[in-house]
What we know:
Largest sheet: 5 strands, mixed
Oligomer: single chain
Helix content: 25-40%
Strand order of the largest sheet: 3-4-8-5-9
Shape: globular
Structural class: alpha+beta
Amino acid sequence: MDFSTVLLLFSLVFAATTPNLKAIEEDPTVKTMQDFSGYFEEDTYGLLDSQTLFVDKENLQRQIDELSTFSDSPAPSVTRILYSENDILARRYIKGLMEEAGLIVREDAVGNIFARWEGTNSELPAIATGSHTDAIPYSGKYDGVVGVLGAIEAINVLRRLGFNPNRSLEVIMFTSEEPTRFGISCLGSRLLAGSMTLLETLKGLVDSQNISFAEAAKAAGYHGALGLSDGISLEKGAYSGFVELHIEQGPLLEEEGIPIGIVTAIAAPASIRVDFTGNGGHAGAVLMPYRNDAGLAASELALAVEKHVLESGSVDSVGTTGVMEIHPGAVNSIPSKAHVEIDTRDIDEERRNTIVHKIYQSALEIAKKRGVTLSEFHIVNQDPPAHCYESIIEAMKDTSKHLNLNYKLMISRAYHDSLFMARLQS
Length: 426
């Protein structure tokens, strides 16, 4: 990854207004920045280019490498689960870098970390950026991390340029973007966006070791669900804009040789948990006509998911059966229970909801046909899509052109904390 290229674009999004009209007329990048926040010292606001905007990419890569050592799995993979020892160490590391950058650092009750550069008009809604540092088992070291460490480096770039923020600039490290421990994606940003149903859910939530969310949060030094009354959610309009730098996690940019993807919308995700209960028995003793195999019901449902997604007729419809667990899990035992977890997404919310309904109908039909019980069909989340602000898209486009960077307008089919931060925009 060319961090210099990516962060040049990224830092410019933080934008400035300058009192020097001649400079604005001469430099389209400065004009682009006019819609945002701040101004440069007179001796530094000249033409902005890849030489002026010096990004310390060697130091940034070193930070990414150091952060990757806080992992429960060996290199080159990274495993960093919410509120684990390595998650706590990673948080401490990030807060140290934020403080070194001269930012004011605070945390909320679930561990969302905020680092603010106060502007001269700090009463105005701030411009925010950020991402996450938790990592699913055996993931790569760039997912989410680039958006946090990159944001801190963008602040450092602006400081080196002599930038004086008018609006405050804020870097956010979100808690638990990944659903690994408690099964809920974007937990921190959902709470910031004011998800009241999640507040109630958290109070009874436990992980695979039967540790409650509240207990895990408290052990990590946070109040968690025990202290939600002190207010995590933010008011609508808390930020005038939010930008998230993220790796694509897909093949399009790499295949086409394009360095910059400018996201116009984030697909609508839905997650489903399904349980079938049948009758167990000895694999040799119970003849085929007498079986009520929960494992086969789960397998048939996985095929039904694929069928319904393909029948939508849209390349934007996707569905994945990513978890399939059978009990008792012995080669000579007929599965008596099966647990399935399904992820389906689409940029069109109505089409996504139609797919979810068809999956439910198939689950009912499969259970009846195979003589098993559909003991649970739970929609964990069913979120709407988010459309990105045209002003930010235009700023990214203008800056890319000025820096001679090719870009591609694209939909993000992976969803990020931006999906929920969009709900806070005024």
